[in-house]
Write a structure and sequence with these properties.
alpha+beta, Arc Repressor Mutant, subunit A, 10 strands, flat
Length: 436
C-alpha cells in the first residue's frame, strides 16, 4: 500500500443556503409561510412586506367538512372553550359549603386527569389534605355529583355506574352487569352473563346499547385543540369540460426591497454598513426566489393531480383513482419528497369542496382484468357492504374478501381488509353481532 496525496473528482449535492430555504418554504402551509415572512421582516430592515388581500375571503375552519356550500360565519368566530377544572370550580361556588370544604373539593378537582378521572389514590390526597379517608370519600362523592356525569371516577367501571345512576329512566340490569360482570361484558361473554342473571341474551344486547350512549372519558369534551384554520392555496375549477388550476398568490404577503434603506448601499465611507446592507439584500432576493419556486411547484403538482383525478372532480359520483407521490414526481420531474412537501398541509378549493392535496393520493389493488382500484374505493365498498349486512350474522373479513372477488373482481387479502376496517373504525364481526 502506497501513501501520498492524490486529486480525485467526485459529484455530490451541496445544500446551499438558498436550496435549504426553498425546501424549508415548500413544506410550510400558507399560514405558516405568512408567519415566517413576518419573522424575517423583523430581522431584516430591507425586507418590505405588504399584507395579503385574500385572507378574509379564503380562510376556512378545519372543522368544516368538504362541501360546495359557502363557509359559515361561525367558522370565523373565536371559540373560548371552558376547561374541565373551570367548569367544576364554577359548580363548587354554587354549593352551600364551608370555605374549608370548598378548598378541599378544589384540591380534588386539580387532582383530576384531563379525561375526568381521579389521577391518584384517594388515601394519598387525604394525607396531603390532613383529613381522614372517610372525609376524603365524602368530598369525592360530592365531586361525583357534578356535571359532566362520571367525573371524579377512579376507574371505568365507576365512571359507567355514575352515569347509569343519572339516567332519567333507571336501568337496573345495566347496573348489575357493570357492577358484577364488567370483565365478562367487555369480553362479550353475553350468554354466560344471561345465564348468571337469568335474563335473555337480547337483554344483554340492550345493556350494550345503553352503555354505547355513555361517555367513557367524561372530561374529554372539555379538551380540544385550538381551532385550526386553512387557506386553500390553489383552485381547481371546471372550464369547458376540463379543469383549470391556479395558485392563490394573494394569500401570502408580497415581498420586496425596502427602498428607504437604499442609501446604505451607496455609503462608501461606512464599509461595514454597506456589507451589512448587501447581505440583507441578498437574503431578500433569496426569499423572493424561494417563494416564487414554492408557488410554481405547488401549481405544477396541483395540475398533475387534477389531470389524474379529472373524473373525481368533474363528476359527482366520480371516484378517486389510485395515485402515488412517485407518479406525480416522475411526471413533473422532481423528487418524491418534493411532492410530499408540496401536498402536506396544502388545501385546494375544488368542485368537491375544500380538500387537502395529500388526501387525493391513494394506494391501489389490482383486479382480475389488470385494472387498478384505489384503497379508498375499496373502503367505500366495505362501508356500504357492512352497513347493509345482516347484523345478526355480520360478515367476517374472509367473507368480505370473497365478496370483493365475486362482485368487484378485486383480489385483496384478508389482512388488508382487516387493516382497512380498522382505519374506518369498524369493529370485527364478533363485535358487530346483534342478537335482536
Amino acid at each position: 500500500m502506497q501513501f501520498g496525496l492524490y486529486q480525485q473528482q467526485t459529484t455530490g449535492l451541496v445544500m446551499t443556503q438558498e436550496l435549504r430555504q426553498a425546501i424549508h418554504l415548500l413544506q410550510f402551509s400558507a399560514l405558516e409561510l405568512s408567519t415566517y415572512i413576518q419573522e424575517q421582516a423583523l430581522e431584516n430592515p430591507l425586507l418590505d412586506v405588504k399584507e395579503p388581500t385574500g385572507l378574509a375571503e379564503q380562510t376556512y375552519s378545519t372543522y368544516s367538512k368538504a362541501s360546495t356550500d359557502q363557509p359559515s360565519p361561525i367558522d370565523y368566530a373565536h371559540i373560548d372553550r371552558m376547561s374541565l377544572s373551570e367548569y367544576l370550580l364554577q359548580q363548587i361556588q354554587e354549593l352551600n359549603l364551608t370555605n374549608k370544604r370548598k378548598k378541599e373539593i378544589e384540591y380534588l378537582v386539580f387532582s383530576l386527569r384531563e379525561d375526568g378521572y381521579v389521577s391518584r389514590p384517594i388515601q394519598e390526597i387525604c394525607d396531603e389534605l390532613h383529613i381522614s379517608l372517610a372525609e376524603g370519600e365524602t368530598i369525592l362523592h360530592t365531586l361525583q355529583s357534578f356535571d359532566p356525569a362520571g367525573v371524579g371516577a377512579r376507574n371505568l367501571q365507576e365512571c359507567l355506574l355514575l352515569q347509569l345512576q343519572r339516567l332519567d329512566t333507571p336501568h337496573i340490569i345495566a347496573e348489575q352487569v357493570i357492577s358484577y360482570y364488567m370483565e365478562e361484558f367487555a369480553s362479550r361473554k353475553w350468554k354466560e352473563i344471561s345465564k348468571k342473571l337469568g335474563i335473555t341474551v337480547a337483554d344483554v344486547q340492550e345493556v350494550n346499547d345503553v352503555i354505547q350512549t355513555l361517555d367513557p372519558r367524561p372530561g374529554s369534551q372539555f379538551v380540544a385543540d385550538p381551532v385550526q384554520y386553512v387557506r386553500p392555496e390553489i383552485r381547481i375549477v371546471p372550464y369547458e369540460g376540463d379543469l383549470l388550476v391556479h395558485v392563490e398568490d394573494d394569500l401570502i404577503p408580497s415581498v420586496g426591497l425596502n427602498h428607504h434603506y437604499e442609501q446604505l448601499l451607496q455609503n462608501e465611507q461606512d464599509h461595514e454598513a454597506t456589507h451589512y446592507a448587501k447581505q440583507k439584500v441578498q437574503q431578500v432576493q433569496w426569499l423572493m426566489k424561494s417563494i416564487q419556486q414554492r408557488q410554481q411547484t405547488i401549481v405544477k403538482v396541483g395540475e398533475a393531480i387534477a389531470k389524474h383525478q379529472r373524473d373525481y372532480f368533474l363528476n359527482k359520483k366520480g371516484i378517486l383513482k389510485p395515485l402515488t407521490l412517485k407518479e406525480i414526481a416522475d411526471e413533473i420531474g422532481v423528487h418524491e419528497s418534493t411532492v410530499s412537501r408540496a401536498t402536506t398541509s396544502k388545501f385546494a378549493d375544488t368542485p368537491r369542496g375544500i380538500i387537502e392535496l395529500k388526501s387525493l393520493f391513494s394506494s391501489s389493488v389490482q383486479n382480475g382484468f389488470g385494472e387498478l382500484a384505489s384503497s379508498r374505493q375499496i373502503k367505500d365498498w366495505m362501508k356500504e357492504l357492512i352497513a347493509s349486512e345482516n347484523k345478526q350474522k355480520p360478515l367476517s373479513d374472509s367473507k368480505i374478501v370473497s365478496w370483493m372477488q365475486a362482485e368487484k373482481d378485486i383480489i385483496v387479502s384478508r389482512r388488508a381488509i382487516a387493516k382497512y376496517r380498522d382505519e374506518l373504525g369498524i369493529p370485527a364481526s364478533s363485535k358487530r353481532k346483534r342478537f335482536v
